Amino acid sequence: MTKHALKLTIDRQSAVPLYKQIKEILIKELQAAAGETGRPFSTEHELVERFHVSRAPVRQALKELANEGYVYRERAKGTFPVQEMPVRPPGLELGGLVGFLRDQGMDCKSKILSVDWVLPTENLCEILRIEPNDKALRISRLIMLKGKPLVWAQTYLLVPEDFQPGKRELEEAESVFVLLEREQGILISRGDHQIYASGASQMVAEVLDIKDSEPVLITETKLYTRNDRLIGWRKAVHIADDYKLSFSVNR
Amino acid sequence: MTKHALKLTIDRQSAVPLYKQIKEILIKELQAAAGETGRPFSTEHELVERFHVSRAPVRQALKELANEGYVYRERAKGTFPVQEMPVRPPGLELGGLVGFLRDQGMDCKSKILSVDWVLPTENLCEILRIEPNDKALRISRLIMLKGKPLVWAQTYLLVPEDFQPGKRELEEAESVFVLLEREQGILISRGDHQIYASGASQMVAEVLDIKDSEPVLITETKLYTRNDRLIGWRKAVHIADDYKLSFSVNR
DNA sequence: CAGTGGTCTAGACCACGTA
DNA sequence: ACGTGGTCTAGACCACTGT
């Protein structure tokens, strides 16, 4: 049972904030001790003494752990680990689905169908609040799982015309967003999602290799930069039943 | 344009924490000034002076406003309102869809189809980790919008047998959860959601008054109490196209 | 350079649950 | 009565942005 030695102390010289170091240590310990039932977790006081810090970084670490579902806290009672560690797959995260599925050991491939500049449809003009002659970069990507189509995503981006990612480049990067950040310094920091079910259109059916009007799950996302500028829109069509979005809501 | 006077000061005698009072005031001001473009928001320093408080409550208020999508903050630059106020409809919130739709001025009714104690199916036993002879309370509810079925939700709860809500009681309460809290002191505090599209089964088609195998959106939710105890499961079937889940993801 | 938000210290008082 | 987490004060130093 003696695994890798767990990092036990914090580094005051590090540029990494204390609360983040504490959080990382606690996450590792929680994962190492996963399954042990009902044992109590350290109190704020114990952590303050253990790490020789004030309450603020301890509280910030515990608060983030609670927000992310690792522990729950009850006033006057204490802090307790949740029984089942959160899985938090992406899907509503922004980009990176392919990498995630691969990490899970799934046979997952991504194919760029096309990269081109297009004139927006009327619908798209309204959504992105642009004029009909403002061109947008359209990236069409098909994600395959075990050789079968899983998701077809089309992303429209309002970016300078000198952003010209190649197909291979995109396939290697696993997400447009990392290229955007690397080459243009543009960071996508928020997505407004709408999720609904629908029947596959003829084109969708063709791309995903299913029958016409078969059920599909559609997520439409408005993409915003760090400065809250609306910079793009994405529509992803997911095969029904095979693809499930998962996530938690706390209150 | 002179609406109700905005509350401008905080009440130190109130039991409501300062940061919540500040947050509420700021939300009202943001909504009142919605649409005005690009104006800067108060800095932490200004708010400290305005409300005569220390930085902590101001920071907590601003942090929550940022988490909830009202403002975004940039280090060394400032805090700025987002252009479009978040709408935040529920749907993934826990309970209260009916009330929300009514607030939006929609003609929305809720009908309890049945309330009964049932033996769990094999599938449900696995999900809730119970024995096949542990009974569960099943509540079947149909939500109608403009006279047409919108959502069919079935909730299974592991609760003491003396919790016997009546149909009328449930319809008035708008959600089982408020009754659970009021009558049993049980607070549902977390939901693990799975969302997918599927074709309507024969039974679903009948209840929702649609054709067999028409697309539907399904959300399955595991319900947890404040102590992280798995206390129930809910499966909700939504009419396709008419019903869209909406929400934001920040990173 | 001054001003911003991010982090941290070292205290304090409180409401609430357990014993 | 005691310990828990929730809130608050009044300071401090830092990295970064804009001028």
TrEMBL record, chains A, B:
Domain HTH gntR-type: 16-84
Signal sequence annotation: none
SMART domains with a match to the protein in the record: HTH_GNTR (SM00345), UTRA (SM00866)
Keyword DNA-binding applies: yes
InterPro entries for this protein: Bact_HTH_transcr_reg, Chorismate_lyase_/UTRA_dom_sf, Tscrpt_reg_HTH_GntR, UTRA, WH-like_DNA-bd_sf, WH_DNA-bd_sf
Superkingdom of origin: Bacteria
Keywords assigned by UniProt, alphabetized: DNA-binding, Transcription, Transcription regulation
A Pfam cross-reference name: UTRA
Protein name per its UniProtKB record: GntR family transcriptional regulator
Organism: Psychrobacillus mangrovi
Origin organism lineage: Bacteria, Bacillati, Bacillota, Bacilli, Bacillales
